[in-house]
Every structure is written in structure tokens, then in C-alpha cells.
Amino acid sequence: MATFFLSPWSARLLSVLRIVVGLLFTFHGSQKLFGWPPSDHAGSATGLMLVAGILEFGGGLLILIGLFTRPVAFILSGLMAVAYFMAHAPQHALPIVNQGELAVLYCFVFLYLAAAGPGPWSVDAARTRTLNRTV
After folding, report:
1. 118 near 11, Cβ under 8 Å?
2. Of 106, 109, 117, 134, whose CA is between 20 and 30 Å from 59?
């Protein structure tokens, strides 16, 4: 059976997915915390939104560079599940109607990263390679 032409790239594409998701998620936190990029509600985080902004910004940076990827992704997956059920689900049952598609998508991408790991282009992978050389 022939392999799909992208199969040899799967580990590197996992890293690319992690980097893109981390960068985009960092922007969600920076909007809440620093007002950048500008939006209607940028920089006005208090209470739970402040906690979410800190987790989004800090967690997004850690995901972006691939440091502590599995535990951070697991925590961020939970954050997105809570965000969905607190902010979106009460409005309507369907994510397409309650504008919760992004929260659901982030939740499951982070859950996947928690299970799959960071990929080869990450600080975690570099640390593992260094540890294996010293042992």
C-alpha cells in the first residue's frame, strides 16, 4: 500500500500546528491583558477574564516554543472547555449559533497536543535530546 505523500512530514507538521496555535492563542491573551491587537473589549480584563488572559498569553507562549507542552496543553484544553460552557453554551446548544466554534476547536486541538506532544521542533524535544546525550 502506498503511503500518503505528506506522511513523512507528520511529526514536523505537528510542530507547525503547535506553533501556529500557540501564536494565535497568545494574541487572545495579549488582547485581554495589553489591548493589543486592538478590539472592542481589548485591555479591559478583570476577574475571570484576567485569569483567562494570563493563561492564554503565558500558556500560548509556552505552546508556541514547545516548553512543557503536554501539561500546558491539558490545562488550556480545560480552560477552553470552561470558556465554552460558561460563555457560549448558555446562549444556544449549537456552537455555530452561540459563536463557540473557536473555543471548541482550541479545546480539542489542545487536548490533541496534550496526547501527541510538541513535535520535533520544540524546546521539549531539544531538552529530551540533551538529556539522552548526557545519560
Report:
1. no
2. 134
- Residue 59 has a CB neighbour count (10 Å cut-off) of 22
Three cell numbers at 29? 491573551
End-to-end CA distance of the chain: 39
- Residue 25 included in any domain: yes
Residue indicated by cell numbers 500546528:
17
Total-model pTM: 0.92
For residue 41, being part of any structural domain is answered with yes
Say if 7 falls within a structural domain: no
The tens digit of pLDDT for each residue in 43-99 reads 677 899 999 999 999 999 999 999 999 999 999 999 999 999 999 999 999 999 999
Q: Is residue 5 part of a domain?
A: no
